[in-house]
């Protein structure tokens, strides 16, 4: 008897002892076996309204009652042991979570999953639990939580049977979070996955192209849309309509596609074709209205906007565009009401505030215009110089004239618009606001009602069946009477309604024949002519996502042509989850509830990916932080023997195969405020003997960051070899990455409105060393000429900054030349030779430098890179790759200001980054010193003068601001210490968790170290040996699986000298 039968019987007898009169619930062996496989992995596969799935439907209803009763009994019981209660409680909660998820009762599923999470210490070892919890988070649009759960799931179980589904949801969640690169990465992984998914391959390609469009690469997006449109994969008319809509909108926006008249004509043609394929799209009507408006066809534009409003009256962009059109037609009051409608629907829509400000300014109501412009400024994430200039101009005008004069001028206007404080009381916005509130209440009610697939969980009826409510019946009548006018999606919905209605009536007839009870609920008196539906036709649709949704008044209106069915933001994969949070207010995606009209066939077996010929499958991944189950002195032959026994299920593996990712370090968050500004470790080197002393090396290894002064002078290093003049002479045409940034004080980082932010604006581009050198020189010469004027401005800096922070944008930009590669030994022979004068622990190549043993180049880590700076150039906050240490030398002549946080506090910094919507690993961020102070995070702050060497300890968080014209050279080093190796391993695993490729291949590095080094540090020796044991065991298990079980031939690929290491992962190409 399997474990589930034993478990249910134990619970049954516990319940019997508590309540002998309780109604007994008994599962047959067949039911118990099927119940064992019912978990979250069947979400999207199991169709509980399918006639052939009546066994599963009855089983789910029966099991839900059973587990809910058992939960109550366990909570009441005080006789059983605590351990038994806890185990049973966890099992019951987990099963309740899975079963409620399968019937789409997300509220109850979330409750059960959260209680399981709190009760189970090793919850992370249960992959279906992580998947189910992620699905629930995703359903409720908790995208940040969903990404964390799904990333942990893929880290722990890379070969999870639903990995493709996870990647799809990760892609859509990252798109909702505006992390478009990560979204594209995960969607591509889902695209190349051979396993069937709810999305078709064409739909996944569409979402990839849409992410590319949202990134701003319109030409590439256009190419992707065209390629997909011409492919044979597009079979859905809704998908074709969406492609045509996006192509039309691209032509309307992208100036490089031709002259304006040609682009508008092409856009109108595409949008009209889109509407032929899907006339229900309100977004297509809106785009068409924008095109007609740009072409001067006002009447047609109004008609298109009207159609769009009829289908989606709650879209703020539509009302904003209508306002612009009214303004062009000299109808200011109508324009005002339209703009107010847009603001009421979405008060974060900055174009609406700008347009409203222009309207007020046109009628000389400057105070109202200024308020609108300032509201728009607060909402814009990017600098809008024209808007700033307009604000300054209006402020100058208002300050230069008395208030009475301004009011008198506005009164001379032909009319006086209501002021900004009164517009919210206009009737139209109030009506729209009521509709919005009603809509929100309706959505909340839908979430709280529970199951959305219509499974009736009648307390007195185990065989409860889905039935149509009054709105569904009304919709079925309307659709059946207008079949000739229906699009494919509406025809599909009609068939679903008819199938469910016929099925319900069939079983009601059977029930009436079997029961003599007089109080049965009478059948509906509605009569509908329904053609018989064969079981074969019904069986074609196996995904509940294409089955009958819960019909709301909104859905009914949609089919009558009153609302837009294509809410286009996050594309949740459930039809009931119509997310209303827009990613881009101008760029829709395919309506989710229309994407699944194509039947999807997915195997019901949740263990289809588990090989039947192995007692134990290969481990899903190798974690370098996993503990060993064998002594570190084990030989290779013993490892091979254990691997064979492990594959047969006769013993444990060499290492733990399922472990959590490494946890962040603990830190002291209770430091007194006066100790938060740390004294920077600094040492002065006077002689060559001091430079080569072991004390200097030990001092650097023990500190988070160190300033070494006098080192380059004591070693007589010629730093002029790295000056701009010398670099230009050697390689004027070499490429340099350019970062365009706004000039700010070193301890200030504000946005366009002057508010403190962590986002560090740094726009990438490319130029040549010669061109940047000319810019650097010109900047220096201009500064010398204007020195006196600059000093005068600096005297008024404080008061001017106070004003600027409130009203004025960051106007001046600086350009930072970064990542000039100096790895070519032939071109940069003299420069690299000069660096060999440094102490061995600081050198680029040294036997005590871990990175020197890699055997291949990792640019910027075991090679030198040059940074060319002007005052204000910034290196945003970061940790060095894989937590390695670093060396930075200021060539001069100017200085740099450094900020650093000890390694132990990196997770605290990461948390604040996330709270400020910054990506700690990939983003560009500049910490606020006030935030660090408030969160009790200690800080180093110091100046790096010309010739100073800065040693960056492993894992130290740091950011740098140049205060003068200077060049810097930098590279990474790996101290031959256990702490450096441990931190590198932990970051390697942390990067895997966050889908971030580590630049240092640590397994390869460990084998290289074993070949090249005789270890003196026992701890480091054991850590490296542990990695080798894990590596060889994992390779042997996989090798046995491929060669002996799958009967595949192994081909050897010889390695060439200097060849980069290869990472084992799914190719994204």
TrEMBL record:
Keywords: Chromatin regulator, Dioxygenase, Iron, Metal-binding, Methyltransferase, Nucleus, Oxidoreductase, TPR repeat, Transferase, Zinc. InterPro entries: Corepressor-Demethylase (IPR051630), JmjC_dom (IPR003347), KDM6_GATAL_sf (IPR046941), KDM6A_B-like_C-hel (IPR048562), TPR-like_helical_dom_sf (IPR011990), TPR_rpt (IPR019734). Residues 522-547 have a biased composition (Polar residues). One of its GO terms (biological process) is regulation of gene expression. Its main location: nucleus. It is found in: Nucleus. Residues 504-547 are annotated as: Disordered. GO terms for cellular component: MLL3/4 complex. TPR repeats lie at residues 127-160, 350-383. SMART domains: JmjC, TPR. It comes from the Eukaryota. The keyword Zinc applies. Residues 827-990 form the JmjC domain. Its cofactor is Fe(2+). GO terms for molecular function: chromatin DNA binding; histone H3K27me2/H3K27me3 demethylase activity; metal ion binding; methyltransferase activity; RNA polymerase II cis-regulatory region sequence-specific DNA binding. Belongs to the UTX family. PANTHER family: LD02225P, LYSINE-SPECIFIC DEMETHYLASE. This is Lysine-specific demethylase 6A. It comes from Trichinella pseudospiralis.
């Amino acid at each position: 008897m399997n474990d589930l039968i034993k478990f249910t019987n134990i619970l049954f007898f516990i319940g019997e002892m508590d309540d002998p009169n309780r109604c007994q619930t008994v599962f047959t062996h067949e039911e118990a076996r099927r119940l064992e496989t019912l978990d979250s992995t069947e979400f999207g596969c199991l169709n509980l309204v399918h006639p052939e799935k009546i066994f599963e439907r009855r089983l789910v209803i029966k099991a839900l009652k059973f587990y809910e009763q058992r939960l109550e009994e366990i909570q009441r019981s005080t006789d059983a042991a605590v351990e038994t209660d806890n185990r049973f409680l966890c099992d019951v909660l987990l099963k309740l979570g899975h079963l409620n998820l399968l019937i789409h009762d997300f509220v109850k599923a979330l409750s059960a999953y959260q209680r399981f999470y709190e009760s189970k210490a090793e919850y992370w070892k249960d992959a279906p639990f992580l998947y189910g919890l992620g699905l629930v988070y995703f359903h409720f649009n908790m995208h940040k939580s969903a990404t964390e759960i799904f990333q942990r799931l893929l880290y722990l179980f890379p070969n999870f049977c639903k990995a493709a589904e996870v990647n799809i949801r990760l892609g859509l969640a990252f798109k909702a979070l505006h992390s478009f690169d990560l979204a594209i990465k995960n969607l591509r992984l889902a695209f190349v996955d051979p396993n069937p998914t709810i999305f078709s391959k064409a739909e996944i390609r569409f979402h990839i192209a849409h992410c590319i469009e949202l990134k701003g690469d319109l030409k590439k997006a256009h190419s992707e849309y065209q390629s997909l449109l011409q492919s044979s994969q597009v079979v859905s008319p809704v998908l074709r309509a969406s492609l045509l809509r996006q192509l039309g909108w691209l032509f309307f926006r992208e100036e490089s596609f031709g002259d304006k008249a040609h682009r508008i004509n092409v856009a109108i043609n595409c949008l009209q074709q889109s509407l032929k394929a899907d006339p229900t799209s309100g977004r297509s009507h809106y785009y068409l209205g924008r095109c007609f408006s740009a072409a001067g066809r006002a009447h047609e534009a109004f008609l298109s906007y009207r159609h769009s409003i009829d289908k989606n009256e709650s879209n703020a962009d539509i009302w904003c565009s209508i306002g612009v059109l009214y303004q062009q037609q000299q109808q200011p009051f109508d324009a005002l009401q339209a703009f107010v409608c847009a603001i009421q629907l979405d008060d974060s829509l900055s174009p609406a505030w700008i347009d409203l400000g222009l309207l007020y300014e046109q009628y000389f109501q400057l105070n109202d215009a200024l308020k609108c412009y300032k509201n728009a400024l607060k909402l814009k994430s990017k600098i809008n110089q024209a808007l700033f200039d307009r604000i300054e101009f209006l402020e100058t005008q208002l300050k230069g004239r008395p208030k009475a004069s301004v009011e008198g001028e506005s009164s001379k206007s032909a009319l006086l618009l209501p002021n900004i404080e009164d517009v919210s009381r206009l009737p139209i916005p109030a009506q729209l606001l009521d509709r919005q509130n009603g809509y929100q209440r309706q959505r909340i009610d839908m979430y709280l009602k529970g199951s959305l697939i219509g499974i009736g969980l009648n307390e007195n009826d185990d065989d409860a069946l889905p039935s149509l409510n009054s709105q569904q019946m009304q919709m079925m009548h309307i659709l059946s009477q207008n079949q000739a006018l229906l699009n494919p999606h509406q025809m599909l919905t009609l068939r679903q309604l008819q199938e469910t209605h016929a099925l319900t009536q069939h079983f009601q007839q059977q029930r009436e024949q079997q029961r003599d009870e007089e109080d049965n609920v009478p059948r509906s008196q509605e009569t509908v002519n329904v053609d018989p539906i064969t079981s074969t036709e019904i069986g074609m649709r196996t995904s509940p996502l294409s089955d009958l949704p819960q019909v709301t008044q909104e859905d009914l209106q949609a089919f009558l042509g009153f609302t837009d069915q294509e809410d286009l933001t996050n594309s949740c994969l459930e039809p009931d989850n119509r997310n209303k949070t827009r990613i881009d207010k101008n760029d829709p995606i395919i309506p989710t509830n229309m994407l699944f009209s194509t039947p999807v066939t997915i195997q019901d077996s949740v263990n289809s990916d588990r090989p039947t010929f192995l007692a134990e499958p290969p481990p899903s991944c190798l974690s370098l932080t996993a503990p060993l189950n064998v002594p570190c002195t084990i030989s290779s032959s013993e490892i091979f023997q254990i691997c064979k026994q492990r594959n047969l299920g006769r013993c444990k593996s060499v290492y733990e195969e399922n472990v959590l990712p490494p946890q962040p370090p603990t830190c002291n968050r209770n430091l007194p405020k006066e100790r938060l500004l740390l004294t920077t470790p600094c040492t002065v080197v006077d002689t060559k003997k001091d430079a080569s002393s072991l004390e200097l090396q030990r001092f650097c290894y023990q500190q988070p960051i160190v300033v070494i002064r006098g080192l380059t002078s004591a070693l007589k290093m010629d730093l002029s070899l790295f000056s701009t003049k010398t670099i230009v002479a050697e390689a004027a045409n070499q490429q340099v990455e350019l970062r365009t940034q706004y000039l700010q004080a070193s301890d200030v980082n504000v946005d366009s409105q002057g508010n403190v932010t962590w986002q560090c604006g740094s726009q990438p581009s490319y130029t040549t060393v010669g061109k940047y050198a000319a810019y650097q020189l010109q900047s220096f010469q201009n500064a010398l000429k204007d020195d006196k004027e600059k000093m005068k401005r600096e005297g008024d800096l404080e008061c001017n900054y106070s004003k600027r922070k409130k009203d004025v944008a960051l106007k001046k930009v600086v350009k930072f030349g970064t990542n000039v590669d100096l790895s070519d030994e032939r071109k940069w022979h003299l420069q690299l030779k000069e660096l060999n004068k440094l102490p061995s622990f600081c050198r680029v190549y040294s036997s005590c430098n871990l990175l020197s043993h890699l055997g291949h180049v990792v640019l910027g880590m075991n090679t030198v890179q040059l940074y060319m700076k002007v005052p204000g150039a910034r290196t945003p906050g970061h940790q060095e790759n894989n937590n390695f240490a670093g060396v930075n030398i200021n060539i001069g002549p100017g200085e740099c200001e450094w900020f650093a946080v000890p390694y132990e506090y990196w997770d605290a910094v990461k948390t604040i980054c996330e709270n400020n919507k910054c990506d700690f690993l990939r983003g560009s961020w500049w910490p606020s010193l006030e935030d660090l102070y408030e969160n009790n995070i200690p800080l180093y702050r110091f100046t790096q003068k010309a010739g100073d060497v800065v040693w960056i300890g492993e894992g130290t968080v740091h950011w740098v601001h140049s205060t003068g014209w200077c060049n810097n050279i930098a590279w990474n080093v790996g101290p031959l210490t256990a702490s450096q190796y441990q931190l590198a391993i932990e970051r390697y695993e942390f990067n895997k968790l966050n889908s971030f490729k580590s630049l240092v291949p640590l397994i390869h590095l460990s084998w290289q170290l074993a070949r090249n080094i005789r270890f003196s540090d026992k701890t480091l020796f054991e850590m490296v040996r542990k990695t080798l044991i894990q590596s060889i065991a994992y390779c042997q298990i996989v090798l046995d699986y491929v060669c002996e079980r799958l009967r595949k031939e192994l081909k050897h690929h010889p390695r060439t000298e200097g060849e980069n290491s290869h990472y084992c992962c799914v190719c994204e190409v």
